[in-house]
Every structure is written in C-alpha cells, then in structure tokens.
UniProtKB/TrEMBL annotation:
Domain of life: Eukaryota
EC number: 2.3.1.12
Organism: Linderina macrospora
Protein name: Pyruvate dehydrogenase complex dihydrolipoamide acetyltransferase component (E2)
Keywords linked to the UniProt accession: Acyltransferase, Pyruvate, Transferase
Enzyme class: transferase
UniProt lineage: Eukaryota, Fungi, Fungi incertae sedis, Zoopagomycota, Kickxellomycotina
Length: 165
C-alpha cells in the first residue's frame, strides 16, 4: 500500500500545480468550548481538536464552494482532505494534494504565542495559536478562492458558536 501511495503522491506533486496559503488562527475560544463540552460529557465522549477541524471545514466548504469545483466524474468520493499532524507536535507542513482532489488542509500544533492586544495594559497577551496551510490545485482553485476558504475556516474556529447558527 505504501508503494501505491508513494507513486500516486509523486505523480501528484509532479503534475499538479500546488500553491500554499497559510493562516494563523486564535484557538482560545475553541479550547474553552471544547473543555466545557468535555466536562459536560463526563467521560461519555471526548471532543478533540480534530473533531473541530472537521466540524469547521464543512461550513467553510459550503461558504466557498469553488474549493469543490471538480466534476463528479473527476472525483471518487471527495475533493478535500484534512491532514492534522499537530497532535504530534508538528508546527506546520506542506501537504501534497491527493490525486483527483482540489485541496488538502494541513493542521499544525496549537502553541502559546504573544499577540497584540490593544485592550491590555501591556499591549499584548498570551494566546493559543494554531497554524494551518492549504495546499490547493491551482488548475481548479485560484489564489483568491483559497484565501476566502482560509478566512471562512478561521472565522468559524475563532467564533465556534457560529457553528450552531
């Protein structure tokens, strides 16, 4: 199976024009909501950061449907993938698009960083920040569309309660 995967991804990298917009996302609100939901669950289930990535990708793809511009006959089941290596401590990665997909979203680890905060007396605060990178097929997803998708994805993660609206 690894030989087939290696061959397909090598072909993909050689034939698909990739581009890689990146985005930093404040994760404080998601982390608070996740902690609350897991406390309420009382061990019955555990919501992971990866669960939120999937929950947020769905409305972001709905908001920017151009990410799914492959024709049905060109795709076998999906046109978008999420690769989360953040759970292994990886800060960021440039994923290779799976053949027949339009894009893959790479998710990095959430790290504490100093960020500007005009409301703070010091002018900065510590925040949980995650890095994501979209690898997109430039033949079907132009740069502006990739940027719009990342903006929508970031918006849902930074304001997770909008998922229930």
């Amino acid at each position: 199976m690894r030989k087939v995967t290696a061959a397909r991804l090598s072909e993909s990298k050689a034939t698909i024009p990739h581009y890689y917009p990146q985005q930093s996302i404040a994760m404080d609100n998601v982390n608070k909501l996740r902690k609350s939901l897991n406390t309420i669950a009382n061990g019955a289930y555990r919501i992971s950061v990866n669960d939120f990535m999937i929950m947020v990708a769905t409305p972001a793809l709905r908001d920017v449907p151009e990410i799914n511009r492959l024709m049905p006959e060109e795709s076998q089941g999906c046109s978008f993938t999420i690769s989360n290596l953040g759970m292994y401590g990886i800060s960021s990665l440039s994923a290779i698009i799976n053949p027949l997909h339009a894009a893959i979203l790479s998710v990095g680890v959430t790290e504490q960083k100093l960020v500007l905060d005009e409301s703070s007396e010091k002018g900065f605060k510590t925040a949980d920040v995650m890095s994501v990178q979209l690898s997109a097929d430039h033949r079907v997803v132009d740069g502006a569309t990739g940027a719009l998708f990342l903006k929508a994805f970031k918006g849902y993660l930074e304001n997770p309660l909008t998922l229930i609206l």
